């Protein structure tokens, strides 16, 4: 069968990466978490203390973008790729709340998006890729073979993220996580450049009441239906 390009978009913490990883394993495709790349830039801002009056110093960041290289490297011990910022693994660092707190403010920047979209398109040149994010079906791969738009009830999303993060940081509260998700959803859907929206030809999956296995089975069935004859 032809090596497909599969785009998965949706709100924060609604299981996009889980679906993308499961599909990639099932189909033996490359999985790319594009959100990790935006988080990588946000981590660079924190690491280099690029702030003015407590807000990310956008102008300095834009001037330094050429000094930033992000790359994925497969880690056979974890059965997934690590993200490297200028050669250093930052896979754990980018999941920290400090990164989540500023990443949407970084993702609004045109220059950041142009740089990352270019890298993402290069990663997808050969097909056989599943990428998740906010603008994959609309901007990165507008001609993707299959597009999914994943949604879930906001309270369920916050609870899922809480269960995941509380193991690493017991001081976190459900309310703080919900507030961060709400803020990110707002910024991601209302930004001027490439806001999160469902592509016209995307298939919506609401996984509020779907198990991981049921979601995977549903997506695989749709992929098979759509690709008969390809
Ligand atoms: O999927 P995530 O929560 O790790 O994404 C982190 C942030 O990056 C999120 O607030 C929106 C932004 N993002 C984006 O603007 N475009 C993408 N393709 C992926 C993520």
Tag the structure with descriptive keywords.
single chain, 5-stranded parallel β-sheet, binds 2'-deoxycytidine-5'-monophosphate, 3-stranded antiparallel β-sheet, 230 residues, alpha/beta, 10 strands, Rossmann fold
Describe the overall structure.
With 230 residues, this protein is an alpha/beta fold. It has a single domain, classed as Rossmann fold (3-Layer(aba) Sandwich), CATH 3.40.50. Helices cover 47% and strands 19% of the residues. It has helices at 16-27, 34-47, 58-64, 97-107, 110-123, 136-140, 154-166, 174-190, 212-227; strands at 5-10, 30-33, 51-52, 55-56, 70-75, 80-85, 88-89, 129-133, 146-151, 203-206. The strands form 3 sheets. The chain has a 5-stranded parallel β-sheet with strand order 2-8-1-9-10. A 3-stranded antiparallel β-sheet has the order 5-6-7. The chain binds 2'-deoxycytidine-5'-monophosphate.
Given as residue ranges, the uncertain stretches (5+ residues, pLDDT < 50) are none
Taking the alpha carbons of the first and last residues, their distance comes to 7 Å
What is the approximate shape? Answer: globular
Mean pLDDT: 95
Range of helix content: 40-55%
Q: Tell me, what is the CATH class? A: Alpha Beta
Strand content: 15-25%
CATH architecture heading: 3-Layer(aba) Sandwich
Instruction: Tell me which ligands are bound.
Output: 2'-deoxycytidine-5'-monophosphate
Question: Nutshell version of this structure?
Answer:
By secondary structure, the chain is α/β, with parallel strands linked by helices. Helix content is 47%, strand content 19%.
């Amino acid at each position: 069968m032809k090596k497909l390009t599969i785009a998965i978009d949706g709100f924060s913490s609604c299981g996009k990466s889980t679906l993308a990883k499961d599909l990639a394993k099932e189909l033996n495709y490359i999985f790319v978490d594009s959100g990790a790349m935006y988080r990588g830039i946000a981590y660079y801002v924190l690491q280099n203390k690029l702030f003015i009056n407590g807000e990310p110093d956008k102008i300095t960041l834009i001037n330094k973008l050429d000094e930033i290289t992000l790359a994925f490297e497969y880690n056979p011990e974890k059965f997934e790729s690590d993200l490297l910022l200028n050669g250093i693994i930052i896979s754990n660092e980018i999941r920290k709340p400090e990164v989540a707190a500023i990443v949407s403010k970084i993702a609004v920047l045109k220059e950041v998006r142009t740089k990352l979209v270019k890298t993402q398109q290069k990663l997808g040149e050969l097909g056989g890729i599943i990428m998740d994010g906010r603008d994959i079906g609309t901007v990165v791969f507008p001609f993707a073979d299959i597009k999914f738009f994943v949604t879930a009830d906001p309270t369920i999303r916050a609870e899922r993220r809480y269960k995941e993060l509380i193991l690493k940081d017991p001081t976190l509260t459900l309310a703080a996580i919900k507030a961060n998700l709400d803020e990110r959803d707002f910024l991601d859907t209302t930004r001027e450049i490439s806001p999160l929206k469902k592509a016209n030809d995307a298939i919506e999956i609401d996984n509020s009441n779907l198990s991981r296995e049921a979601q995977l089975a549903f997506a695989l069935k749709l992929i098979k239906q759509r690709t008969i004859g390809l």
